[in-house]
Specification:
Blueprint (H helix, E strand, L loop, with lengths): L5 E5 L2 H4 L45 H15 L3 E5 L2 H4 L10 H16 L3 E5 L8 H6 L5 H17 L6 E6 L12 H8 L9 H26 L4 E7 L3 E2 L5 H12 L3 H8 L4 H9 L10 H7 L4 E5 L4 E2 L18 E2 L5 E2 L1 H15 L3 E5 L17 H19 L5 E7 L19 E3 L11 E3 L1 H11 L6
Parallel strand pairs: 1-2, 1-12, 2-3, 3-4, 4-5, 5-7, 6-8, 7-11, 11-12
Antiparallel strand pairs: 9-10, 13-14
The structure holds 6-O-phosphono-beta-D-galactopyranose.
InterPro entries: GH, GH_1_N_CS, Glyco_hydro_1
Pfam families: Glyco_hydro_1 (PF00232)
Family: Belongs to the glycosyl hydrolase 1 family.
Length: about 475
């Protein structure tokens, strides 16, 4: 394994912290999203209603229990933990004149705890945590002022933790909002606070949002290195192979095009310019991207130092002739999880190869894991052999990418080392952790933490640096 290699996990504020209105935190977009299920999408409310369950309000109470949780990560031997700093804790309305000090103090305390255990803090600056005021008063990322406000927030955070944090991540998975693809309401909302069905001109609006977010990332990357030249800046992308349905050239082409939709922002952040092919595509649809002359310099100087890769599954291109079928065509060679996510370890090696060769940058695996139902069996143990199997097979492929294909990979972080609220469904029972949290979908439970079988397994993996899986 490449040295130093980060072993650890990733969590996000809105899925773990709870304490949604404590110590000056303002309301953020995910505070308005109800719990859904595998089959029923999460609903988004305009107001917070008292008799409705909003899982983000409670999370897993990481806000009060982070010491205990971090001690358990340290027991496993973690050398890194990726957390997000919630914008609405630092600027409750996003545009406040003064910083909310208790918000900064809270993250100081977490980061200090990590450093005590020699765990590298990796900070995501935007993991679906947008102050809701920026949606109502500014129209979210459609408005360039939100770019300025985000940059201001990042600057404050990067300065505050300058002596403690070296690894910064500008955004989580902004690349899923390709303007040319129809989106679901919940997905568009998680990333922007806006519902897809309420966009007045979806293609134009998503192109504007995508441009503004990309610009925000490059501006922050540039400033990060002005603040401290040691700062390492990445952006996290959700990327996966799209396999052609068969070897018909039309299907191969179609799969290629579908996969490319995820990449225009990666191209922009890694090459130092917004890609011409995307601008031409927009032009052909009569879309105007709000480019200002000074942006070119930001793109040039705001390139990434590393790419964060979230990998869960591979996809199968759906040929046109099946387009009106409700059920998606499945890849017959690949199993699926209970939530319909394919389990394809080779896909991680494929994706690592692809992005490393395309950009030549180091890769950090920022998320990988299996969402599953866990049973607490008699005697209180949780025997999650299926999770061990999933992770072992993926780590094996990460090793192959590094050793046989010469991909530079600087870390492997699982999602999520402790059970948290699911982002897409809001469920508690879709669990990923090595640590079980006693809470059910109704929010009932003691929140007690308990080691699963995978806990000791991952501890051993880290101890032998991935040699024995
Ligand atoms: C990623 C998100 C995470 C996380 C993960 C698993 O896309 O970055 O926030 O939640 O997906 O998704 P889910 O929780 O819906 O199973």
């Amino acid at each position: 394994m490449h040295q130093p290699f980060f072993w650890g996990g990733s969590i996000a504020a809105h899925q773990s912290e709870g304490a949604w209105n404590l110590d000056g935190k303002g309301p953020a977009i995910m505070d308005y999203v109800r719990q859904g299920t595998r089959d029923v999408p999460r609903q988004i409310d305009k107001e917070i209603v008292t008799n409705v369950r909003y899982p983000s309000h409670k999370g897993i109470d990481f806000y009060h229990r982070y010491r205990e949780d971090i001690a358990m990560f340290a027991e496993m031997g973690f050398t890194a933990l990726r957390i997000s700093v919630d914008w609405s804790r630092i600027y409750p309305h996003g545009d406040d004149e003064v910083v909310n000090q208790p918000g900064l103090e809270y993250y100081h305390a977490i980061i200090d705890t990590l450093l005590e255990y020699h765990i590298e803090p990796i900070i995501t600056l935007y993991h679906f945590e947008l102050p809701v005021n920026l949606v109502h008063s500014y129209g979210s990322w459609l408005n360039r002022k939100v770019v300025d406000l985000y940059v201001r927030f990042c600057q404050i955070v990067m300065r505050a933790f300058n002596n403690k944090v070296r690894y910064w991540i500008t955004f989580n998975e902004m690349n899923h909002l390709d303007p040319m693809t129809t989106q679901t309401d919940i997905f568009t909302y998680m990333i922007t606070g806006l519902k897809y069905s309420e966009l007045s001109n979806p293609i134009q609006d998503l192109a504007t949002i995508g441009y503004h977010m990309t610009l925000a990332s490059v501006r922050v990357a540039k400033i990060a290195r002005e603040i401290n030249k040691e700062n390492q800046v990445g952006c996290v992308f959700g990327l996966s192979p799209v396999y052609p349905y068969d070897c018909h050239p039309d299907n191969v082409m179609c799969a290629f095009k579908e996969s490319e939709r995820d990449y225009y922002q990666v191209d922009a952040m890694c090459t130092g310019r917004f890609p011409e092919y995307k601008l031409s595509e927009y032009q052909s649809h009569g879309i105007n991207v709000p480019i200002e002359p000074e942006d070119a310099d930001d793109f040039r100087r705001g390139k990434l130092d590393f790419i964060g890769l979230n990998y869960y599954y591979s996809r199968l291109q759906q040929p046109q002739r099946f387009a009106d079928q409700e059920e998606r065509v499945k890849n017959p060679y690949i199993e699926q999880s209970r939530w319909g996510w394919t389990i394809d370890p080779v896909g991680i090696r494929y994706t690592m190869n692809y992005i490393h060769r395309r950009y030549g940058l180091p890769i950090m695996i920022t998320e990988n894991g299996l969402g599953a139902l866990d049973d607490v069996i008699e005697g209180g143990t949780i025997d999650d052999g299926y999770r061990i199997e999933y992770l072992a097979k993926h780590i094996e492929q990460v090793k192959k990418a590094m050793v046989e294909d010469f991909v530079t990979c600087i870390g492997y972080l699982t999602w999520a080392p402790i059970d948290v609220i699911s982002a897409t469904t809001g469920e508690m029972r879709k669990r990923y952790g090595f640590i079980y949290v006693d809470q059910d979908d109704s929010g009932a439970g003691t929140l007690r933490r308990q080691r699963k079988a995978s806990f000791n397994w991952f501890k051993d993996v880290i101890k032998n640096n991935g040699e024995n899986l």
